[in-house]
Write a structure and sequence with these properties.
This protein is of the alpha+beta class and about 250 residues long. It has helices at about 5-15, 60-70, 115-125, 130-135, 165-180, 205-215, 220, and strands at about 45-50, 80, 85-95, 140-150, 155-160, 195-200, 225-230, 230-240, 240-250. Strands 2-6-5-4-7 form a five-stranded antiparallel beta sheet. β8 (about 230-240) and β9 (about 240-250) form a beta hairpin. The longest helix has 18 residues, at about 165-180.
Length: about 250
C-alpha cells in the first residue's frame, strides 16, 4: 500500500503549497509560462523517461488531466502540459536561463547551451554499456508514491516498485550524473516525479479543497505499478516538448 492510499497522506502533500509568500506568482511564472498560461521559451537539455503510450498509469493521468482542464476554477489557475510531454526526469541537465549555484558543471558555467549539449551527448553515448554491465539497464519498475502539489506545479511522485528497485534507480541517477560531470545540490534527496501542470497562481484554501477532491477521485487508477523504458537524452525549447536525441542504452 502506498502513502497516498489514505486521505490524510494526500491532504498532507497538497497543503504544502499553501504557504505565505511575497512572490506575486508561483516559481514557474514568468520564466516557463506567462501569467496567462502561454508557454515561454526556456531551452535546455535533460535525461528522462517518457511515459509509454501503453503505461498502466496513462489512463489515470489522462482522466486527471481532463478533470483539471474542464474545472471551472482550477483550469484558469494552472497550465496543463500536453500528454506527449509527460515524463519522469532521471537527471536534470542544464537550462539556458538557470544560473543558480550548482546547476551547471563548474567547468561549463560560461558555455553556450549548444556546447554543453554536445559535451553531455558525447559522454552519455558511451554510458549504455556500463549501465548494462552494472545491472542498471531498463525496464525500470516504478510505482505511484503520492500526489505532489509543490511550489511550481502538480503531478505525482513515484518511486522504485520495491526497495531494491528504488536503490537501483538511485544508482542509475548517480551513474548518469557522473557521466554528465556534476551532481546538483539536491541530487541525493531528489524525488522522482511526473508533472501534469504548472501553477499560474498560488493555491488558496478553496483551490486545495478542489484538488483534494479531484485527486481522491482518481487515486485508485494511479496507485499502481508501471514500467519505464530506456533513459533518453533530450533537448527542449519549452516545457511542452522534449526532443529525444538518443536512448542511453547498450550499443
Amino acid at each position: 500500500m502506498t502513502m497516498a492510499s489514505t486521505p490524510s497522506a494526500v491532504q498532507a502533500v497538497l497543503t504544502t503549497t499553501m504557504r505565505s509568500t511575497l512572490q506575486p506568482y508561483p516559481e514557474g511564472v514568468p520564466y516557463k509560462f506567462s501569467p496567462h498560461g502561454t508557454v515561454q521559451r526556456y531551452p535546455g537539455n535533460t535525461t528522462l523517461c517518457h511515459v509509454p503510450t501503453d503505461s498502466a498509469i496513462l489512463s489515470g493521468l489522462q482522466k486527471l488531466h481532463t478533470a483539471l482542464k474542464i474545472h471551472p476554477r482550477l483550469s484558469n489557475r494552472i497550465s496543463l502540459l500536453p500528454p506527449a510531454s509527460w515524463h519522469m526526469t532521471v537527471v536534470d541537465g542544464v537550462c539556458e536561463e538557470e544560473c543558480e549555484p550548482g546547476m551547471w558543471p563548474v567547468d561549463m558555467e560560461k558555455q553556450h547551451l549548444e556546447d554543453s549539449t554536445a559535451q553531455f551527448a558525447n559522454s552519455l553515448r558511451h554510458l549504455g554499456d556500463l549501465l548494462e554491465d552494472e545491472g542498471l539497464a531498463p525496464p525500470y519498475h516504478m510505482r505511484f508514491k503520492f500526489y505532489d502539489a509543490n511550489a511550481v506545479g502538480l503531478g505525482i511522485q513515484v518511486e522504485g516498485a520495491t526497495v531494491e528497485e528504488e536503490a537501483r534507480m538511485r544508482r542509475l541517477r548517480d551513474r548518469v550524473a557522473d557521466a554528465m560531470g556534476f551532481r546538483a545540490p539536491r541530487h541525493a534527496t531528489y524525488g522522482f516525479h511526473i508533472t501534469v501542470a504548472y501553477f499560474l497562481r498560488h493555491m488558496d484554501v478553496e483551490d486545495m479543497a478542489e484538488l483534494n477532491h479531484i485527486f481522491a477521485t482518481f487515486l485508485v487508477e494511479l496507485d499502481r505499478e508501471f514500467e519505464l523504458g530506456a533513459v533518453e537524452f533530450c533537448t527542449f525549447e519549452n516545457m511542452h516538448f522534449f526532443s529525444r536525441l538518443f536512448y542511453v542504452e547498450k550499443a
